[in-house]
Structures are given as structure tokens and as C-alpha cells.
């Protein structure tokens, strides 16, 4: 037995136990009375096709925390019916994809990443019928829907783990990761990921660092990358991947358009040093993408914080979020010259095959990427507009975090992740924010009175209309969604680049500084005419000289987009 396998199993492989689990999977049989009863039946592929247009996934996405988006029944918790009722808002905004944070049954009753049933909807969110209706209604508006699939781990309350922790005789023991004694030397983000089973650490609600240390000689530990409430699956056990493959097909067969795959670099750990982004994890991820892409017009995007450009390659995940770029974008929007240079070098230096599939964003549901954008920018409206105008027009697939389009701030009086996961601000109602007719499950945004959908709908100069204009430009010009990226140039607090697909040729220019700037646009066709499409101040057409250069004057904290037309164009 190899050293890494000795960490993955508390004991050598138990063929009888594996045969039992595998047989149950293959036959779809009911589990014995003493074992858990989730649906482990195999699910064959039944592709329902797709009503979406080819390339829909190159449009902008909206990330939605269903619990915080819209409540349809007055219980103070957002749900699927509430989200469905707001699809017109997303359609008017111009998004082409909707990413749902976890909607499956879970033990945490909040974020949803502690899954208790991979084939069921969380009861507080609704039913499978509600889910199916959401898919139908979104498709009718040209919007694809993907959802978080939390493949790395389950909840400690998942029936499979409850059975597995009973002891070595459990037929599901090898679905998780065990060690007789706590392995030494492990440190994942400041925590030892091995937890003493008999101490029931999953009942501990605080920081894992505050758990009492097991007594010397304690036996029986399980592995949990993200804390004791979420034990890792053992992906060296074939039945585990078989189960997840069937669960993925369960949703794809219903018409779901794909997945955001959570924490895929952590699927397999080899030892205390080689635990992140191992070759085995990459192989599993590539296999998952092949499974999903076997269906019509489906999409996968991965959370892979260490090497997102690798995971964005077509042969691995096919798309991945650009972790690290988001902070540069936010700092650049505030005039930080070093950050502007980083934005230019990141995009210009990335392989074209990865850059086309990278997932850009400014903020998301995890506090480690930053607070709500309005809070990061300390209310600087001009910088906010510049940040949006930059990432929405860069290569890749941008994801807007719900409420970002109206400048929603964090939830009043809260900190950490709850601060950035507050109810959506639909109206200025100080009690409900238009989110519910009842009592909201969490505090409302601190800037609710001014930054809400109703107020911004009525103001054509609002941030909401700014986002709509940017997405309209993106949707009308294929060069933005799928075109090449070239002539990227950062100079001080200014940035210019070009996007082109066939005859659709655009030039983007940004002045993030607090003073006017003259930018040198280069690499244009000789004599080309630059027709303004979108800019902060009064539009101005430009003409390139015989060498393909054109000077452009931009006011402080402003941007402009021009369409490049042939020299003979009027």
C-alpha cells in the first residue's frame, strides 16, 4: 500500500463493503434497514437537448444566493419561486447566465455548502417542480442556469457519513477518509484537517482552532478540508465518483445547463505537503467536464484559486474564475498604477485558449475576495463605474454578484461572509427592502434607501442603467464576448486594449486617474475611423493616421469605447 493510500483509509480496502455499496449503486436497490437511505441509484444519461443559442455561456452571468434574493411566501427566506418572479429583471439587465449558489438539501441552513442530499432541493427553497419551472422560465428568456455542485465533501449530517462513522464494518466506511491516529504535519489554512470522530467535532459551531485537543492515544480520525461539519469524500473509492456522476446526470437530465464545481483542487490529497491541486484532482475534474459536455450546450466553471488559467483550459475544467484578478481590477479602478499594469499583464500574458474561458468578477459570496464592491470602493461612484466597464468588456465570462448592479452595500451591522450575503434591495422599504412581506432572515443593506432597484429604474443616469448599457454593448458586439484581445497597454493610471472578431473591431480606453489624460491608441488600420459607442463624457469620433495611431483625450475617471471602421467609412 502506497503512503498516500495509508492516509486515505483507516484500514486496507474492504472488498465486501465495496461490493455491497457498488451493488446497491448498480441495482438501485433500497438500502438495508441499518444503513442510510439517500438515493444512490445509477442515473443514465438522457439529454433533453437545449433551447439556448450556441455560445450562450459567453454572455454575462449573475451569481444569486437564493436565500437572499426574493421571498415568495413571506417566511423571510428567499426561494426558487421568488427568484423566478425576478427573471425579468435579469433579462432586462442583459445577463445570459444564472449561477445559483447551493440549492440542494443541506445541514447548515444558510450558505448550503454542507450537503445532506445531492438530489433534493432544500425544503425552504421549494420543490423539484419549482426548480423545473425556474429552468423553463429562464430558458424562455434566453437565460441559462447553472448551479453549485459541492462535490468535494458532504455534511457531517449526511446519512452516508452518519453510517460511515459507526465504524470499520460500515459498508460506507470507504466513502470518506480515515486514519487510526491523527497524521502529523498537516496545516490547511491554519487548521489541522483531521478530526477525532468520538469527540463529535461536527457539533462545534466555532472556529476549529478552538476545538479541544484529543487525548493522547486517541483513535479514529476523519479528514475534512473545510472544517469538521463537512467531511471530504474519498475519491479513490470508485463508488464515490460513480455516485456523483449519477447525481450530476440527475440534474442535467432535468434541463440544468451546467455547474459551478466547488473546490475541485481539493478532491484528492496525497500527504501533508501535497494536498492542493494534485494531478489526480485534475484528472477527476477533466472527467467531470467530459460528462457534462456530453450533453447539448452545457457549461462548467471551476473554483480553483491556485491556478485558474490552467483550469480554464478546454482540456481541464473548460472555465475557471480568475482569482487574483478581481483585487487588481478594484485597485486599478481607484487609480493604482501598479494594479493597472497587473490587469494588462494578466490578460495579455494568458494563453488565448484559457483567456477566452476565464471567469472575471469583482466580488462574490466569499469574504476572502473582498467586501461588497461599494464598500471596497468606499462609495466612489466613478471608480465603481470604471471597475464595471473594465471587467465586463475584458475577455472571458464575467459574473455579476447579485446587487452589484445597483451598488448594494453590505448588510448593516454584520461582518465576515454574512455581511456580503444580505437580502437583495428591491425597494427603499426600511423594514423589508421589497425582499419579503415578512421579516428578512438577515439585516438589510446599509445603503438601502438610495441603492435599490426601484429607485434606480427611475433614474436613467443610475448605476443599474450603466450596467445595462455595458451588457447591451457586450451582447450586440461578438468581439466583446468571443473576440481576440490585443494591443493591451498600461501607462500610469490609464489602460487601453482592443477586441476583434472578424470585422467587429472595438477599442477600449480607461483613465482611472484623478486628472485628464491623453492616451495614444496604436495598432489601428491606417486611416481608420473610430466611431464612439459608449463613453463617460461627450462622444468624439477619431481618425487614425497613416501609421495606425490616434490620440484620445479622456477626462478624469472616465472611459470610452469606439468601433473601428474602415478608412473609407463616412
TrEMBL record:
Q: Which SMART domains match?
A: Aamy
* Annotated signal peptide: 1-26
Q: Which InterPro entries match?
A: GH, GH13_cat_dom, O16G_dom_2
Keyword check for Cell division, yes or no. Answer: no
UniProt keywords (A-Z) are: Signal
Q: Which GO terms describe its biological process?
A: oligosaccharide catabolic process
| GO MF | alpha-amylase activity
Q: Gene3D superfamilies, per this entry?
A: Glycosidases (3.20.20.80), Oligo-1,6-glucosidase, Domain 2 (3.90.400.10)
Family (UniProt): Belongs to the glycosyl hydrolase 13 family.
Q: What's the protein here called? A: Trehalose synthase
Which species is listed as the source? Answer: Pseudaquabacterium pictum
